[in-house]
Inverse folding.
């Protein structure tokens, strides 16, 4: 059985070692990087990396830029940012750059492994669905999981594994209100204990990709005090 491969980027050797030991003891194959430049070199030579754990505060290329470049080159890769407790804006910046989740330092081994496993399930699910070439159609959109893309007419829109999962939930329940809690359970898992605002950040990110005017969204409606609803009728 092939082990899931995780890239760990942190310039502090003590923290990096702590993460590596816990990942390896839970059955992951781990590759380490001490700088953003090294992380990108490793990613380009080892395309089978499924999850990347990226510290934000780094000399040289910071974790946000590494995240942005990895997301552009490897849309199927799961990305978790490692942030300090006081770095509230870094959480949002990481998610806006394409990260799927973040973990706040200091964190327990159990929390880290739970978040990695939850993201790995999403990445693996997308890979499984990809092999069946599943498509969801809701004019003018076609969600093609096999290509990690959403098509709006002739225009292709790259999607992260998390964005794909959110879109899949909304499209399959087109016209019905989906609560934030339902999205959290369906996409991040019932055992997710991070910040629920991650749902709203992902919705904003998707809106910027698909809406003609993201400030006045048409396709993803906000159901105030509840959640979101896809405006339209799914055809498949």
């Amino acid at each position: 059985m092939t082990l899931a491969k995780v890239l760990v980027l942190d310039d502090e050797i003590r923290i990096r070692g702590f993460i590596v030991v816990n990942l390896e003891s839970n059955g992951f194959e781990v590759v380490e990087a001490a700088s953003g430049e090294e992380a990108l070199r490793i990613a380009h030579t080892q395309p089978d990396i499924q999850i990347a754990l990226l510290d934000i505060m780094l000399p040289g290329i910071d974790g946000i830029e590494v995240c942005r470049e990895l997301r552009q080159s490897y849309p199927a890769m799961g990305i978790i940012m490692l942030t300090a407790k006081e770095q509230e804006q870094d959480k949002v910046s990481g998610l806006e750059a394409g990260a799927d989740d973040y973990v706040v330092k200091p964190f327990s081994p159990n929390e880290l492994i739970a978040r990695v496993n939850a993201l790995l399930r999403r990445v693996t699910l997308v890979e499984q669905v990809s092999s069946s070439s599943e498509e969801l159609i809701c004019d003018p959109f076609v969600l093609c999981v096999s290509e990690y893309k959403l098509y709006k007419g002739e225009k292709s829109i790259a999607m992260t594994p998390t964005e794909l999962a959110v879109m899949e939930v909304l499209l399959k329940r087109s016209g019905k209100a989906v609560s934030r809690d339902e999205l959290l359970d369906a996409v991040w898992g019932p055992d997710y204990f991070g910040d629920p605002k991650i749902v709203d950040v992902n919705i904003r990110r998707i809106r910027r990709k698909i809406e003609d005017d993201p400030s006045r969204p048409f396709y993803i409606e906000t159901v105030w005090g509840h959640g979101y609803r896809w405006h339209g009728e799914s055809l498949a």
Q: What stands out?
A: The helical segments are 13-25, 36-45, 63-73, 88-96, 109-131, 161-172, 180-188, 198-210. The chain has a mean pLDDT of 86. The CA atoms of residues 49 and 69 lie 14 Å apart.
